[in-house]
DNA sequence: GTTGTACTTAACGGATATGTTAATTAACAA
DNA sequence: TTGTTAATTAACATATCCGTTAAGTACAAC
């Protein structure tokens, strides 16, 4: 997994319309018009959002007659989950003490007697 | 957790410089100059990246004399982890069959006899 | 063929993002 | 006061994002 792919995935997910589209696709394939229906936004705008998602690898598109059914592709989401997992210890309560400890260990200018406990 | 906060968090994480800064901060507090050191980029550019991270709640900043030590704040990362977790079933192997099943269930134009198995 | 439906692309506009250099603020040190 | 270091802010250039409307493409139905 490259950094560029993380860039594209995070950037795609930064838009609420695109996240809503993914949520919709989590329930099954849908056409562009079906995906556009809930939004107060022109069809071309949705089409561009879909292109962004496709470029990020978050969806794939088939062809059935004049329809382009969209489908969720979760690979990049797995990458995101893997990335964020590295930070779990910073929000898990059981690791708070360790985080504090690590921080104290290498505070460059801190007074050593400032240490809690 | 609001949608806006997810927007800001994902947008912040879409930049590789900012992700690298977070990775650095995972090892402990650091000043702006320390954070800037690995990058071929001007200090004002780093300062702006830090402002983006701060606005997203991903870091906090203290004051020690003329230094502004930066510290990782993991709350928004926890939100990200929670968000992406909803999609786990789409990449977990044990759920592939279920995803297929759901897809078949509501394919609008599919031939019912197309169903696998 | 013509018409209708589904969707994309083109052209445009405004807002935001990301970098630069130069100037400024703030705190310490001589 | 003067100078040094740390960091931010100002001013600017460029690029990308996100929406619009209008035009174009692809397929289906008649």
TrEMBL record, chains A, B:
Record-level Gene Ontology MF annotations: DNA binding; DNA-binding transcription factor activity
A Pfam family annotated for this UniProt entry: HTH_20
UniProt keyword annotation of Signal present: no
SUPFAM superfamilies, A to Z: Winged helix' DNA-binding domain
Stretches assigned to the HTH arsR-type domain: 1-92
Keywords: DNA-binding
PROSITE patterns assigned: HTH_ARSR_2
InterPro entries in the cross-refs: ArsR-like_HTH (IPR011991), HTH_ArsR_DNA-bd_dom (IPR001845), WH-like_DNA-bd_sf (IPR036388), WH_DNA-bd_sf (IPR036390)
Keyword Oxidoreductase belongs to the record: no
Protein's recorded name: DNA-binding transcriptional ArsR family regulator
Species assigned in the record: Aminobacter aganoensis
């Amino acid at each position: 997994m490259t950094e560029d792919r993380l860039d594209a995935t995070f950037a795609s997910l930064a838009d609420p319309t695109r996240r809503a589209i993914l949520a919709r696709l989590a329930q099954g394939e849908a056409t562009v018009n079906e995906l556009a229906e809930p939004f107060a936004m022109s069809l071309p705008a949705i089409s561009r959002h879909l292109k962004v998602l496709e470029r990020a690898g978050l969806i794939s598109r088939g062809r059935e007659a004049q329809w382009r059914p969209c489908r969720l592709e979760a690979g990049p989401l797995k990458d995101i989950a893997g990335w964020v997992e590295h930070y779990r210890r910073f929000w898990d309560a059981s690791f708070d003490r360790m985080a504090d400890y690590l921080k104290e260990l290498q505070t460059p200018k801190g007074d050593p007697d400032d240490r809690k406990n």
